[in-house]
Amino acid sequence: MSGTETKARMMQGTVVSNSMQSSIVVKIDRFVKHPKYKKFIRKSTKVMAHDAENACEVGDTVSIKECRPLSKNKTWTLVSIDAKAKL
């Protein structure tokens, strides 16, 4: 691995929107411990990801990885669909 290469971050989340062409919105949930009260809090982040084949449906669990900026808001790309949504 040369000096400029780094390992891309991988995340797992749920698709909340697929209405755009070749783009999806993925909601990533995580648990963080409150610094004062020590209670675990559920926090979520929504990111846009590139879905070249338009294969994802709302509710699918997907794996995404970080990539170069593809647009103003899109810096993630779809790696795989882990679980399809239950109809």
TrEMBL record:
It comes from Thiosulfativibrio zosterae. InterPro entries: NA-bd_OB-fold (IPR012340), Ribosomal_uS17 (IPR000266), Ribosomal_uS17_bact/chlr (IPR019984), Ribosomal_uS17_CS (IPR019979). GO terms for molecular function: rRNA binding; structural constituent of ribosome. Part of the 30S ribosomal subunit. The keyword Glycoprotein does not apply. Belongs to the universal ribosomal protein uS17 family. Keywords: Ribonucleoprotein, Ribosomal protein, RNA-binding, rRNA-binding. This is Small ribosomal subunit protein uS17. One of its GO terms (biological process) is translation.
